[in-house]
Each structure stands twice: as C-alpha cells, then as structure tokens.
Amino acid sequence: MRQLVSYALIYLLAIASAALLATQSQADEGTLSVRIGYLGYRPDPGPLLSNVIPEPKDAGERGAQLAIEDSNSTGRFLKHDYQLRSASVDSPEALLQAAQAQHAEGLRLFVVNAPAASLRQLSAALPDSLLFNAGSADDSLRSTACLGNVLHSLPSRAMLADALVQFMAVRKWQRALLIVGQTPDDEAYAAALRRASKRFGVKIVAEKPWSFDNDQRRSAQADMPLFTQTAEYDVVLVADERGDFGEYVPYQTWYPRPVAGTQGLTPTGWHKTVETYGAAQLQKRFEALAGRWMNDRDFAAWIAVRSIASAVSKLRQADPVAIQQLELSEQLPLDGFKGRKLSYRPWNGQLRQPIPIVQPRALVSTSPQDGFLHPFNEMDSLGYDKPEVTCRYP
C-alpha cells in the first residue's frame, strides 16, 4: 500500500513539474529579449608628469551594468529581459573584432566608450546598428562630421565649456587667462573654451601653452607664479584633460584668482556631489554595485541603456531604426535625475542635459544658468544649436 502511495505521489509530482515547465516555456516565449553590447577601449595615456588619480578601468561598464539591473526591475512586468554583453579591450583593432563578434551573435544595440576615431570606425562597420556614444566628447561628431547611426549620451566639449562660461558670465568673471596643454585633446578643449568665451562675452586676455616637462610639484612652486604673470584676469582657464599640470595651478597663480576648466571648478556630465531629484538613490545603487563613485562615463553609459529600455517599453520591440526614430522625435522624455526631462537633439543626436559645475567635494552650480534663454529649449543654449551644425543627421 505504501508503495502505491509513493508511486501516486511521484506521478502527481511529475505532472506538476511538467505543468510548471510548460507554463515557464509559455512565459519565455512571450518575453522580449533585448541584448545590448558594451564596447570599451580607452587608450593608454602614457606617463603623466603629475601623479594624478587615474580614472577607474571599469568606468562606463559599471554604469551600463547598473542600467541593466534597473531596466530588468521594471521590465519583468512587461516581460522584457535585458542582457549586457561586455567587451573591454586594449586596442582599436581588438575593439572592432569584439564589435563584429557581438554583431555576428545578433546584437544591434551598442554602448561605446571609446575615442572618436574608434567610434567612427564602429559606425561604418555596423551600419545596421544603433550606437550610443558614452566615451567621446569630440565636437566634430556633433557639428561637422555627424554619424547617422550614433546618439551621444556623453556631453560634448562645447556643452561643458558653454556651461562653465555661462557661470563665469553670471559671476562677472569677464577676463580670463587660458593655459593649454600639449595634447590634441587639450587643444580641442581649449577651442571649446574660446568658442564659449566669444559666445558669452568673456575676454581671453592672454593664452599660454604649457611646455614644462619637469617635476610639476617643484614647477608649481617655482614656475607657476611667474608663468601666470600677465595682464590682469578674473579667472584662470585650464585645458589639461590628461592631468599633466592642471592640478598644480590652483593657489599658485600670480593673481589670487579662481581656476576653472579641466581642473579646479569643473563642468562635467556627472559627479558624486549631484544628489537632488532622486540622484542620491542612483548614487547609492551605483556604489553598492561598483564600490566607488559614479563618474561622467558611468552616467553616460547608464543613461544610454536606460534610453534603450524606455524606447523598448513604448515600442514593444527592439528594432534599432525604430528606437533611433523615437529617441529623435522628442516624444520620449527621459528621467536622468537632473531635474529636467532629457531628450536627444534631432539635428545631431546629442542628449540634452543640464551640466553640473563642481569642485572636488561640492556642487557649485548647474547650467544652463538662469537668464540664458532659448526659443525652444533652454538646454539648447549648451553646445551646438541647430543653425550651427553643418553636417546632415541622421
């Protein structure tokens, strides 16, 4: 008798298991799988003249990972399953190979944290895909050499410079000394500062290239005061993206003036000190995941993935062309914890967003500043507006 009961129990369990598997299979069949590729390559900056704190090696990737978790927390109710396929490599060739491998697996949505040259290469190699630029601030990609299948979630240098110089204009810092580093990126940042200064009425009274190559800690004490002696200025603007010398400019200038740009008072896409409008919760979730602060590339990758998820939720599909069209339609306001709804500019694919202006341990201000108006959207006072863009997009 006991044996018959055991057989009956086993039989019932088998039927229940089969029913559960069938139900799960049906659920799986109704689930929309959204696979996103993360492609990361940051060139080795080479030996630095100052011992600055390097950017985390997983910058960007961690932001994308958090966005996948956030998207799945709500996506499960819509039967959407988001997956991230990551590749962080050490050369442009390896980046292209990783992208082609992911493309061969069927991926058509990518978040790219790489320099402008690699982004151009990937855009040409993946013409049927949609790429989100979370790593290059290059202005030409938003003004004269647009890439038709690329959206930009990282602010451009022009946006950063405009945000800073707007603040300077409000504070009536109308005369500036500009110090420019030796790299092409430094010159590009300096060009953005020159453009913004002309745009908002700040006069650059002198411009000096930084050409010292010895120990910056000694140079800061011995050379910097004399180096910054020139016509009187209200602020020193620094273009030093690598961090060769900029950290040693504050408190060493000929006139006791604030320092801004790549060091000192800095415009950035994201910073630890951004806490309002729910940003503190985002910061806490990121720190729990990554064990460090969220930076601008992390946020750019995070908002890129969230842009995809928001579009998929509305479209009920993951077609890259349909997603891009919706992103550019301005009918998909995005929540980026910055106090305003974000959207992509239809003329160059740049994400509109307020820009925090920070010092290392505090938020100082946020641009666009009050009083800087625009006919359609005040955030379009930052970066290249539609009449300034000469390339056709998309």
Topology:
Elements: H1 2-29, E1 32-41, H2 61-75, E2 80-89, H3 92-104, E3 109-113, H4 116-125, E4 130-133, H5 140-143, E5 150-152, H6 157-170, E6 175-180, H7 184-200, E7 203-209, H8 216-222, H9 224-227, E8 235-239, E9 259-261, E10 266-267, H10 279-290, H11 296-315, H12 320-328, E11 334-335, E12 341-344, E13 351-352, E14 355-359, E15 362-367
Parallel strand pairs: 1-2, 1-3, 3-4, 4-5, 6-7, 6-8, 8-9
Antiparallel strand pairs: 10-14, 11-12, 12-13, 14-15
Helix pairs in contact: 2-11, 3-4, 6-7, 11-12
Write a brief caption for the model.
With 394 residues, the chain is α/β, with parallel strands linked by helices.
Question: How would you portray this structure in words?
Answer:
- The protein is 39% helix and 19% strand.
- It has helices spanning 2-29, 61-75, 92-104, 116-125, 140-143, 157-170, 184-200, 216-222, 224-227, 279-290, 296-315, 320-328, and strands at residues 32-41, 80-89, 109-113, 130-133, 150-152, 175-180, 203-209, 235-239, 259-261, 266-267, 334-335, 341-344, 351-352, 355-359, 362-367.
- Strands 2-1-3-4-5 form a five-stranded parallel beta sheet, with helices on both faces. A four-stranded parallel beta sheet has the order 7-6-8-9, with helices on one face.
- A hairpin with a 5-residue loop joins strand 11 and strand 12.
- Helix 3 packs parallel to helix 4 (116-125).
- It is globular, with a radius of gyration of 25 Å.
